[in-house]
Amino acid sequence: MTAVASLPLRTDGAGDTSLAARIGDLAVAVLVDEAMLAPKPGLVDARGSGAHGDMTLRTMLDSAHSLRGSFVAMAQAGQRATRLDVALRERLGALGREAETAMLQATGGINTHRGAIWALGLLAGAAGWLGKTRSASAIAQMAAVIARLPDRHRPVHTGNKGELTRAVYGVGGAREQAEAGFPHVTAVGLPALRECRARGDAEPTAQVNALLAIMARLDDTCVLARAGRAGLHDVQAGAEAVLDAGGIGTLAGRRRLHELEAAMLAQRASPGGAADLLAATLFLDRLHAVGDQ
């Protein structure tokens, strides 16, 4: 808490409501793009519902658009805060819970984006705080500072599948990812995305390969909940095999992807946590352009 309290006051960008709107628009845009992206093994995409019997692409898109106001408000909360303190953390937490309610109303009670609300909400708040002068690493680290602050109003037990899975398997999940500064975004997703672009992959191919890179390294609670440790190992090894074969831009990589997807569908395994982090990857990748507008 001492380190947080010692941070300087800042006013840069605090009154720029258009910046908050652009941050909110970007958060929705990356959720839409993540939903539309194909082929994503086990996930809802433009081809179908993957391992999800209760979701469609329309559900995902309705959910994403329902969250715009919440993401704008989270960016505004970061802008209006004069210090990184408990008040900001609790404001973002309250907005996050309101966003979940909006999501569930839009989807008829289906959890489509709970993890994405947590990740993108923190990043939007951090981006609002930092204003127009920021880098991906700076935003991720600022989000980590916020995530580590206490929220007196956060439910002790939610009963959510992710919470139960973390307890059963002893993994950190989305909360630990945020508190560590989103390492699977900054050290895995973003480098993979940019390396694939640099070698000439088309943008959708680069994005799917970035997803696979995250899948290969993440202890995904969504996979664990559906397929257990053995299933998680299979998903991680299968994603790595696609990348080792050159990614989905190669014939060998596409064959490996087909094998991975067939195995995941047989186990009903869905890498929802990796999908949330891909959205965060796209958000940080594109955020520099928002401040330039």
TrEMBL record:
Entry's Gene Ontology BP terms: prosthetic group biosynthetic process
Key words, A-Z: ATP-binding, Nucleotide-binding, Transferase
Protein name: Probable 2-(5''-triphosphoribosyl)-3'-dephosphocoenzyme-A synthase
Swiss-Prot/TrEMBL catalytic activity: 3'-dephospho-CoA + ATP = 2'-(5''-triphospho-alpha-D-ribosyl)-3'-dephospho-CoA + adenine
Similarity-based family: Belongs to the CitG/MdcB family.
Record EC number: 2.4.2.52
Pfam families linked: CitG
GO molecular function ontology, one term from the record: triphosphoribosyl-dephospho-CoA synthase activity
The organism's place on the tree of life at top rank: Bacteria
Top-level enzyme category: transferase
InterPro entries reported in the protein's UniProt record: CitG (IPR002736), TriPribosyl-deP-CoA_syn (IPR017555)
Free-text function comment from the UniProt entry: Involved in the formation of 2-(5''-phosphoribosyl)-3'-dephosphocoenzyme-A, the prosthetic group of the acyl-carrier protein of the malonate decarboxylase.
